[in-house]
User: Which sequence fits this backbone?
């Protein structure tokens, strides 16, 4: 098991010899127990790296050791605490609030799913905490890095690795 370290105080992400700038939530970081849906806070803690979602035609899968799949039209993620599928991938349209995984920007060309509030999900305690591409501004609670940095890091990640946000 290897650890991706996110230092929220310095805005740096470190993995082995790699050291890169990263962005966190617009409200900063908070204890995982205090995380609430929509608060813009990045939860502190150790989060298993579950899998990768990729936008077709935007990223090569060469060298990716993590489980991965392509993002398709209609792919979403439930962010509605009233949804029985809260904090899970879902198909759109859906009668509950969801986040589309096909965004108009490039942030979700690569989505690394972090195991925050997923075993099992507790409604309202935060959903869709991802590691994705930077939009040049704070995230809604995720961790983000520039495309070139993500593409250097992604092939180095393996099943069992974790992201520590501290």
Assistant:
């Amino acid at each position: 098991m290897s650890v991706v370290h996110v230092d929220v105080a310095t805005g740096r992400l470190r993995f082995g010899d790699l050291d890169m700038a990263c962005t966190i939530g617009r409200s900063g970081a908070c204890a995982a127990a205090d995380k609430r849906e929509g608060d813009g806070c990045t939860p502190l803690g150790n989060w298993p790296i579950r899998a990768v979602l990729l936008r077709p035609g935007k990223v090569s899968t060469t060298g990716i050791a993590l489980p991965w799949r392509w993002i398709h039209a209609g792919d979403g993620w439930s962010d509605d605490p009233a949804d029985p599928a809260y904090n899970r991938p879902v198909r759109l349209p859906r009668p509950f609030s969801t986040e589309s995984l096909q965004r108009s920007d490039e942030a979700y060309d690569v989505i690394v799913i972090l195991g925050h509030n997923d075993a099992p999900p507790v409604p309202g305690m935060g959903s869709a905490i991802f590691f994705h591409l930077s939009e040049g501004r704070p995230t809604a609670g995720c961790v983000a890095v520039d495309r070139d940095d993500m593409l250097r890091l992604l092939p180095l990640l393996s099943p069992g690795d974790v992201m520590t946000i501290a």
